[in-house]
Design a protein that fits this description.
With about 375 residues, this protein is mainly α. The protein has 13 helices and ten strands. Helix 1 crosses helix 4 and helix 4 runs antiparallel to helix 6. The model is unreliable at about 1-10, about 25-35, about 60-100, about 105-115 and about 225-240 (pLDDT under 50).
Length: about 375
Amino acid sequence: MPRAQEEQEEAPPEAKAGARHSSLVNFLSASISEYVPKISCKLSEDILGCIAAVYCKLSGAEGECCVASPSPSVSSWSTFSPRRRNDSWSPRSRCNNFDSWSPRPCGVEKESGEQSPGVMMVVVPRIRVDADTFEYASKMLETTRSLIQRLEKVDPVKMTHEEQLCFWINIHNALVMHAFLAYGLHDKRMKSTDMILKAAYNVGGQSVNAQTIQNSILGCRQSHRPSLWVRALFTPAKRSAARHPYALQHPEPVAHFALSTGAFSDPPVRLYTAKKIQQQLEAARTEFIRGSVAVRKQALLLPKVLHCYARDAALELRHLVELVCETLSDAQQKQLQLGLRRRAVDKCVEWMPYKSSFRYVVHRDLADD
């Protein structure tokens, strides 16, 4: 009688080897696809760390004058230009010029019950260039040029939301800091706001500048700079703006507290990682509020950055005040509550002017790396 089931013939060795090879290729492809976004995030961290190290080196000793006009030597380091803007800066060095951060405008003093922020920062009020620092930055430029070029191969779309958020914040801050090194300063102010914010990197084949990252990718509309809101006033609104291919799935207004454009009133620069991005952003918001908000004569003095955050987060003023109060000292809260009992919320809030003079504040985690 014939057998109900024919015995299967054993596959030849060549077929087995081919199957194993195919499985290995599939495994490696899956592993690489999962690992590439992590490499991209690390790349953004390395680029920011490099440029922050140069800033610490070029900040100079306290009390020295700032660079009042663009130095030919500074411009020669970078190849930022309308045609080519793909260069980078330096790996990391240590800087011991630590100071507590406080972005308060002149004339706004701390109340007796107010405590200074406990986080140590590196304050960079100027970029000092001499023979030693020029040589250091020039050598580091040769080492780090490849980091910026690698951005051309990055595909942000393949990253998770947290990875994209981390990547774009780091790239934004590195890009603006790099642009200052390329274009220099004039009387401690941006030589040109447009020039700085429109300097671009090539990311995955797309030319991306700081304004694009702020407005179209992260969804953080920064209109507190005078030049930006004046331009917006005279620019007709577009009926249907196309969504940027790198735009996050949903905007992240809390990123306002992570983005710096080198102005005195901007938040500090710190290194963000995908694993801890949400906790880091919450900490950045708390640090910024504690360092920039003041209570004076039962009035709450708020920086313009909080105004932009509240607008993008759809927070009413009373909800913003509640959020701010949670970070104030007990003495400040009591003083503010007295004012709120007598006046409406909008009468108790004063918006401090945005101070655009040049100053970078770098978080210690960047200076120490």
